[in-house]
Amino acid sequence: MSFHFWSGEFIEVCELSDKYPPYQIRKIFGHVRLFFEGIASLCLARQTHQPKWRTMGENAVKQMQKMEMVSKWNFENKSKLLQAEHYYTDGKLKSAEVAYKASIVSAQEHKFIHEEALACELYGIFCIENH
Fold first, then answer.
1. Cβ 43 vs Cβ 85: under 8 Å
2. Is the pTM of this model over 0.85?
3. What's CA 3's distance to the chain center, in Å?
């Protein structure tokens, strides 16, 4: 799944997610799966306008927000990035921009360099497509 995500093969990410339900994956990797699945499905929702991708993305946003309440340090930046993608999908561009920036700051402050880079990349795509 990770390879497909970083290669931008979002349909493959979501297909693997459907093929292997969460209970079949070790719990330690559950948040990574949720994070990748959420971003991939929200990107697909914008590209295809198919409700199944939106639903999958919205579920990921809700679950990650719950995880953020358990550990702000580990999940805040992920939650903010998923929320940014959700706002973007909904056409709430000002809210999306605020959430992208909050995700970048959180990832930077908490030393999640790779997730900071991902947030910067997705924010850059957002800016190119909307400014």
1. yes
2. yes
3. 16
